[in-house]
Each structure stands twice: as C-alpha cells, then as structure tokens.
Amino acid sequence: MPKWPSAPWRSPTPSPPVADAAAAAAAEPLRIVMLAFARMTQLDLTGPFEVFARLPAAKIEIVAKSRRNPVEDAAGLSIVATASYNEIAGCHVLFVPGGPGQLELMEDGPTLDFLRRMAVEARYITSVCTGSLVLGAAGLLKGYRATSHWLSLPQLALLGAEPVEERVVVDRNRFTGAGVSSGIDLALRLATEIAGEDEARRIALAIEYQPAPAFPSRDREDARLVAEVRARTAAFQDKREAAARRAGARLPSEP
C-alpha cells in the first residue's frame, strides 16, 4: 500500500477516544463520492455510507448522473442524490456500488468518464459487489487484484483484473468488496486505513457490527442451493458476461 501525503483525516496512530470537535471542524474534509444509479442494490450503498459517515471530517456526496429526480434502486427504494457529475471536481474516496443497473452503467460513456476523472485525484478507489465491474469497464482495475459478487467474479478477468475470491481485497489503493453485505466489511477496512484501527473499532461498536450468520455453514458449500441460484440468475449473468466482454474489448491494450 503506497503512503499517501499526510492529511488531517489520515491518522497513522490510534486516535484518542474523544475527538476534539474544533480540530475536526478545522480539518481538511475527507471528500467521499458515492455513486448512485438506477436499479442499484441499496445495501451496497447504504451499508458503507453508515460507516463512512462516522469518520472524522467526512463529507459525503451521493452523486448521480442527474439529480433532477430521486434514484430508484432495484427494489423501488428512492435515494436522493446530493450532486450530479458536473458538480463534483474531485474526491479522496471514490465508491461504486453494484446491482442490476450496473449492466447499463458499464456502457454509459458519461459515467465511465466521470469515474476516470475522479480516479485521477482519488486516494482510494473502492467498490462493493458488481460495482467492481463498473470500475473495470472504466479501466480502473486493469492489473489489480479485485473481488466481486461470487456469481460475477470470473467476469473481472475480462476487464484485465485478477479475480480473488475473498470478502475484501486490497491491492494498492484499490479496495473491493464481494457481494452486497460485504460493504460494511469493506468500509471498516477502509476506515482502519484512513483513521486507524481504534477509530474503526469504535465505529463497529457504535453500529453494533457483530455478525451472527443465520446459517451455521456457508451455503455456497451446498451444491443444490448453488445450482438453484445459478439457474435463477443464468439469463442475467449471460448479459453481464456479454457486457464485460464488450467493455474489455474497448479497453486499451496497455495497463
């Protein structure tokens, strides 16, 4: 992991239990841009948002292509963007969620251009679930280890990334999370990098993050259930793979 220039919000040592409010207010804001798009999976966005919002000096923008109307997620939940692409000059943290709408996003020129523009300044480029495929379509994961939802993980290779079957994968300044619920894990990992382990643990305590899985074993070890899920999603996964192939073909040959 490269060592970025020091900033008031990046603490290499454990932070004190009680932050000084005046100092926090005077600190350079930690500018976090979280992409929102139609038919995204809201938990991909809202889980990490809850963690990021508790970081010292965090200033979060929920950014959509347009903020004329609320963004409706894949299940019909409306989310109001705070800014549009042309209103954002840059950020320290770039975050992309996933969801069915990722399919169209991978071929949306203005969105891919926006992500590339943000990546120039961003100290951390991050995603959850199939948001990594969108980063890949923008050419931002070429030559990087990365993860995604388990159903879509192999598609990362079509975009020049090295697929890794782990819940959170960190390669230099790329932080990627696996499917949906892993967003909180990703956000806490990034919080540790930015604000130190003590601060990240305080956030985990505040949101009572203490996973207790409803099922004692990994359901992905159940061949019957895996086959059923694959069958139910096969048609859409075929579309995802086709989109990833097209996006990969558009990427320049050099890293």
From TrEMBL:
Coiled coil: none annotated. Residues 31-191 form the DJ-1/PfpI domain. InterPro entries: Class_I_gatase-like, DJ-1/PfpI, INH-QAR. GO terms for biological process: regulation of DNA-templated transcription. This is DJ-1/PfpI family protein.
